[in-house]
Every structure is written in structure tokens, then in C-alpha cells.
Write a structure and sequence with these properties.
This protein is of the alpha/beta class. It has four domains: about 150 residues, 3-Layer(aba) Sandwich (Alpha-D-Glucose-1,6-Bisphosphate, Chain A, domain 3), CATH 3.40.120.10; about 100 residues, Alpha-D-Glucose-1,6-Bisphosphate, Chain A, domain 3 (3-Layer(aba) Sandwich); about 110 residues, Alpha-D-Glucose-1,6-Bisphosphate, subunit A, domain 3 (Alpha-D-Glucose-1,6-Bisphosphate, Chain A, domain 3); about 80 residues, Alpha-D-phosphohexomutase, C-terminal domain (TATA-Binding Protein, 2-Layer Sandwich), CATH 3.30.310. It has 14 helices and 19 strands. The strands form five sheets. Strands 1-2-6-5-3-4-7 form a seven-stranded mixed sheet, with helices on both faces.
């Protein structure tokens, strides 16, 4: 069944334009309530959000929908996505909701749903909720006496801070380590600097003045230049950059050079393998991860399992096959020992623990493997256009595969979160990689025009 609302990471779109309207948010809440009302107990849902202006529209709409269905609502305000997952489990709630468009600009927003176990919903359940919304199902409203109530959880931030701190090895401290942390003016703008400070670090905070419009703007994990420059300017030991909902992480070493999610997974996996903590005999990543990561892991006796793009598919594979490290090159790092979803802060602390354990500069021990030359770009297209099926595009892709001749990888796919086509190539020959991506992008852009 084709999806009309849900993508690879919940529902996402431009604020106040369908499907990201108050009306649809209310209907999604009511449909989700119908799906998760089980038994006669008093049902509860946790709702968090990031800092974008449209959260003020979507949060009360979803609250109204759940209350109308007889569910009590716990509002936690601006909090990271992994905090909502954690609080859903901690409070024994029936459902968790995160209102966020992650790394997208403020104009967008989204809805992510978590089950009572703190995991993102399966495709099957999302499709059932979607079908209920699209059918206009109005059944199951509560009677006046059974309406839900809404309240704020004042200590939500403190609970999450302690949860994250407890993931850091008890024998370690961050005393003497100078860290730049860029919170992207997003959901972690309070909790991230606090965690690092309380563990002993000297903290240089960036992106901690949200105004509803500046989330992810020239900051955070998708725009790391400010963090990289600050590392050099303040002579920091490293920099951490989170995205708008703090479920992804990018790191800069002391020279300002970036370490992406592939390097971070390699670093943590190596550390955990040495300590006997690693489960599943390797790492789970997506088709986007660099071939250099796969080769490095094989060299130390570990495997790399690949999934479709989207951290939810990584998590599904991890749970099915018993892995405890997985993630994406973009910086979603899932560490099942601690969290049910990507958590930039917890991943950052595990990176710090591995660096402290090995000693030396971040530039020396943090760059674990040499990546193959890889290039990726995005081409926008009009919604509803099946650009990939056009003969001119199919011919261009086939020709590119012939030119690669088995020496690398080519991946062209539609994004599940925005109307763009991702074009990626990697191979030993960097000039070939650049040429293939640029030519394919130009062909797709012309076909989509």
C-alpha cells in the first residue's frame, strides 16, 4: 500500500499546509488514540516538540485530539526526540509524540510517533493510523465524563539529563576537556550544555537562543561550519553538533575537521568490541554508509549489515538480529544499551568515552578508517512526479553503472522526508565519482523541470 501521510520518519511537511495542519494533526492524534487504547486503564500520551514556531499550532491540536478520545496528555515542551522516547517508557505511557521536522528549516514540521516500548511505530501500524485519518473515522470519542486531561511535566528536562549522564562510564569524567556544543537552536538547547557541564567539561555553547525561526539555520549537524570555526577559535579539544531534535550527531576534531556518523560508529564499535560490550558481531547501517566502513569492520572481524535509509529500519534490523550499535552516516547513532532511537547526546558521550580510553588527540584516534571518495547531492522535483521512471533518467543510471564497472557503488533514491532525489556515488576514482554524480544530477534536474 502506498503512503500518503507517513514517510521514512513520521509525517512531515510545510507548516500550515496539508498534511502539516492543525486539522490533520488533530485527526492523527485521534487515529493514534484509537490504535493504542487497550484495556480499561487510564491511557496516557507524552507530547514533546522542538523549538519551531509551528509547534504552538500543532501541540494544542494534538492535545485536543487525544483528550477527545479520553487519553490524558503529558506535555514536556521543547525536548529532544530521544527524551520523548525515554519518557514514554519511564512514565509507562501508551504512546509518545514528537512534534519536529528534525534537521529541516523552521518552515517545516513533522509528527513522530512512539509506542509504549519507546520504539518508533512499524510500517503496519503507521498505515493503519493513516487509513483511519484518510477515511475520516470519527468513532471512539469519549463521553463528557471520560474526556482526558492535560498537564505539564515540570521536571522532564532534569529526568532526561540524569538519564543521559548515567550512560557515561562511572569511572570517567570530562574534567579538563574543552567542548564546543552546537544545539542548532533546537530541542537540546538547555539539556545538552548542562549534561556536558555537570560531567566536568568546559563548555562553549552555540545555537542556544531559539526564537521559533532559527532552528537549524547555519547551525547544528547539517550546517557545521560555525561549530568547526568555534573549535579552532576556542582551542577546544573537539566539537559536537546536534540537529533540531537532537537525534543526530556530527563531531569535529581539534583541527575543525569533521567526523561523520560512519567514523563515529566505527570508533564506538571498536571500543565496545574490545571491552566485550558489542552484540551481534558487528554494526547495522544503511545503504548510504561508506564502503570504507564496511572494509574496516571486516578487517577487525566484524560485519556491516545494511538496511534501507531511515533510522527506524536500522532499529528494526538491530532488534531482529541482536545488534546494539547501528546508525546512519548522517549522524543518527542508535545504541541499544541505552536508547530505543537515535540520541545525539548519548552518542556524543560514548564517543568521548572511547577517546578518553584510547588517549591522544581526537584527530589521531577519532578517524578510524580511510573513506572511499563519495559524493552526494539532492535534486528537487515537483510532488507527484515520478522522475525515476522517465526513460532518459533510467538510461543515464544504466550508463553510469557501466562506467563504474563494479569498482564502486551508485545509489539514486527518493527522500522519504522531502521532495528531493538523492544521488550518491562512491569509488576508488574520485574524478569518476564527481563526474557521475554531477552528470546524473543534471539529467534528473532537466527531466524534473
Amino acid at each position: 500500500m502506498s503512503r500518503k501521510l507517513f514517510g521514512t520518519d513520521g509525517i512531515r511537511g510545510t507548516a500550515n499546509i496539508e498534511p502539516m495542519t492543525a486539522d490533520t494533526a488533530l485527526k492523527v492524534a485521534m487515529a493514534a488514540a484509537r490504535q493504542f487504547r487497550r484495556g480499561e486503564h487510564r491511557h496516557t500520551v507524552v507530547i514533546g516538540k522542538d523549538t519551531r514556531l509551528s509547534g504552538y499550532m500543532l501541540e494544542p491540536a494534538m492535545t485536543a485530539g487525544f483528550v477527545a478520545m479520553g487519553m490524558d496528555v503529558v506535555l514536556v515542551g521543547p525536548m529532544p526526540t530521544p527524551a520523548v522516547a525515554m519518557l514514554t517508557r519511564s512514565l509507562r505511557a501508551d504512546l509518545g509524540v514528537m512534534i519536529s521536522a528534525s534537521h529541516n528549516p523552521f518552515e517545516d514540521n513533522g509528527i513522530k510517533l512512539f509506542g509504549p516500548d519507546g520504539y518508533k511505530l512499524s510500517d503496519e501500524i503507521e498505515l493503519q493510523i493513516e487509513a483511519s485519518v484518510l477515511a475520516g473515522d470519527g468513532n471512539g470519542r469519549a463521553t463528557p465524563r471520560e474526556l482526558g486531561r492535560a498537564k505539564r511535566l515540570d521536571d522532564a528536562g532534569g529526568r532526561y539529563i540524569e538519564f543521559v549522564k548515567n550512560s557515561f562510564p562511572k569511572r570517567m569524567r570530562l574534567d579538563g576537556i574543552r567542548i564546543v556544543v552546537d544545539c542548532a537552536h533546537g530541542a537540546a538547547y538547555k539539556v545538552a550544555p548542562t549534561v556536558l557541564y555537570e560531567l566536568g567539561a568546559e563548555v562553549i555553547p552555540l545555537g542556544v537562543a531559539p526564537d521559533g525561526f532559527n532552528i537549524n539555520r547555519e547551525s547544528g549537524a547539517v550546517a557545521t561550519q560555525a561549530m568547526q570555526h568555534a573549535v579552532i577559535e576556542h582551542k577546544a579539544h573537539l566539537g559536537l553538533a546536534l540537529d533540531g531534535d537532537a537525534d543526530r550527531l556530527m563531531v569535529a576534531d581539534e583541527t575543525g575537521a569533521l567526523l561523520d556518523g560512519d567514523q563515529l560508529m566505527a570508533l564506538i564499535a571498536t571500543s565496545w568490541s574490545r571491552s566485550g560490550t558489542l552484540k551481534g558481531g558487528g554494526v547495522v547501517a544503511t545503504v548510504m554508509s561508506n564502503l570504507g566502513l564496511e572494509r574496516y569492520l571486516a578487517g577487525i572481524g566484524l560485519t556491516l549489515a545494511r538496511t534501507a535509509v531511515g533510522d527506524r529500519y536500522v532499529v528494526e534490523h538491530m532488534r531482529e538480529h541482536g545488534h546494539n550499535i547501528g546508525g546512519e552516516q548522517s549522524g543518527h547513532i542508535i545504541l541499544q544499551n541505552y536508547s530505543t532511537t537515535g540520541d545525539g547526546l548519548i552518542a556524543g558521550l560514548q564517543v568521548l568515552a572511547a577517546l578518553i580510553e584510547q588517549g591522544g588527540k581526537v584527530s589521531e584516534v577519532g578517524r578510524v578508517f580511510a573513506p572511499l571518495p563519495q559524493r552526494m547531492t539532492s535534486v528537487r522535483f515537483a510532488a507527484g512526479t515520478d522522475v525515476m521512471a522517465l526513460p532518459v533518467v533510467e538510461r543515464a543510471i544504466a550508463a553510469a553503472e557501466i562506467r563504474l564497472n563494479g569498482t564502486g557503488r551508485l545509489l539514486i533514491r527518493k527522500s522519504g522526508t522531502e521532495p528531493v532525489i538523492r544521488v550518491m556515488a562512491e569509488a576508488e576514482d574520485e574524478h569518476l565519482v564527481v563526474a557521475l554524480v554531477d552528470e546524473l544530477a543534471a539529467t534528473i534536474a532537466a527531466a524534473a523541470a
